[in-house]
């Protein structure tokens, strides 16, 4: 290949690079930005930032906590869905816990997903004065899980238990396990540092209702960890507490919940939801009480 052909090819490639740089690197981003400035779109394009007296207080698209300096929920505010994003609602660490339904045994370094759900349910139940019990949870708020030790059949099921341990209840935290015996064998609490993985892991459903009073979004984080909304069911069980803190009738708080609720998108997508930040701001504006 002679030099003139090589130069022409490189010059053509350079011109193509410049043209596509202008189109895709400058023109397209500028076009998208201009579209985002159109009436009705600018607020969303700029992050749906909510401002009070010109001061940004948060985004309608990103959840945030409503707690005091010690991390305790403020009684005059509706509480958001739990978050697994960083220290909570961190857009730079958006993500879930990546724990699945089989994560039921606590370890020395972290609680299982089941225990996280159980502890959240108990805490929410105590805070809202409702029944916080749920299937496969102990009354103390940990996963109701046994390690059943003994000879097994061909399918791996223990046929004659010789020892049964409540693996999520260390003897340092409970005086007695959540149940007295299993298959006629006394249940023991777990000894710290002991490994009970050789036993068959058996979650125990217990007597909690199949439809817990504390809804699922009150005890689990969303996939992004940034969910700004809660379910109407979670909002409903918080109304009495917020009304008492604000010193107003529960029906008035319920009206604000409805005003800050949304249905399914286009009538079919997603679930009904309540935006927590908008609701709490409406509370401060309408019923200041102990808010703000």
Mean pLDDT: 89
The span between the termini is: 76 Å
Cα-atom radius of gyration: 27 Å
Overall geometric form: flat
List keywords for this structure.
5-stranded mixed sheet, 3 domains, flat, 3-stranded antiparallel sheet, 292 residues, 10 strands, alpha+beta, single chain, potassium transport
Topology:
Layout: H1 3-36, H2 42-45, E1 49-52, E2 55-59, H3 113-128, E3 145-149, E4 163-170, E5 181-182, E6 185-190, E7 200-203, E8 229-230, H4 232-246, H5 250-259, E9 261-262, E10 273-275, H6 276-286
Parallel strand pairs: 4-6
Antiparallel strand pairs: 1-2, 3-4, 3-7, 5-6, 8-10, 9-10
Compact summary:
The protein is 31% helix and 14% strand.
What would you note in describing this structure?
There is one protein chain. By secondary structure, this protein is an alpha+beta fold. It has 3 domains: 6-46, no CATH class; 49-97 and 223-291, no CATH class; 101-220, no CATH class. It is built from 6 helices and 10 strands. Helix 4 packs across helix 5 (250-259). The longest helix has 34 residues, at 3-36.
């Amino acid at each position: 290949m002679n030099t003139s052909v090589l130069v022409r090819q490189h010059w053509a490639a350079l011109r193509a690079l410049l043209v596509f740089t202008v189109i895709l690197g400058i023109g397209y981003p500028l076009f998208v930005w201009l579209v985002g400035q159109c009436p009705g779109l600018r607020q969303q394009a700029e992050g749906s930032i909510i401002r009070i007296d010109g001061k940004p207080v948060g985004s309608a698209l990103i959840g945030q906590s409503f707690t005091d300096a010690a991390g305790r929920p403020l009684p005059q505010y509706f509480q958001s869905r739990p978050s697994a994003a960083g220290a909570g609602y961190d857009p730079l660490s958006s993500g879930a816990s990546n724990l699945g339904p089989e994560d039921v045994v606590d370890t020395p370094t972290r609680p299982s997903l089941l225990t996280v759900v159980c502890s959240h349910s108990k805490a929410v139940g105590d805070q809202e004065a409702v029944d916080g019990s749920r299937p496969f949870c102990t009354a103390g708020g940990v996963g109701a899980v046994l390690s059943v030790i003994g000879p097994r059949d061909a399918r791996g099921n223990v046929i004659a238990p010789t020892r049964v341990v409540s693996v999520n209840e260390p003897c340092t935290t409970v005086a007695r396990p959540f149940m007295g015996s299993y298959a006629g064998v006394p249940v023991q609490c777990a000894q710290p540092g002991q490994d009970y993985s050789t036993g068959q892991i058996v979650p125990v459903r217990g007597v909690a209702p199949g439809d817990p009073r504390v809804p699922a979004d009150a005890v689990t984080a969303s996939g992004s960890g940034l969910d700004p909304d809660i379910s109407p069911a979670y909002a409903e069980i918080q109304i009495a507490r917020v009304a008492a803190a604000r010193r107003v009738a529960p029906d008035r708080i319920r009206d604000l919940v409805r005003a800050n609720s949304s249905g399914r998108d286009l009538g079919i997508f997603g679930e009904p939801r309540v935006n927590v930040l908008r609701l709490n701001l409406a509370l401060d504006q309408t019923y200041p009480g102990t808010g703000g």
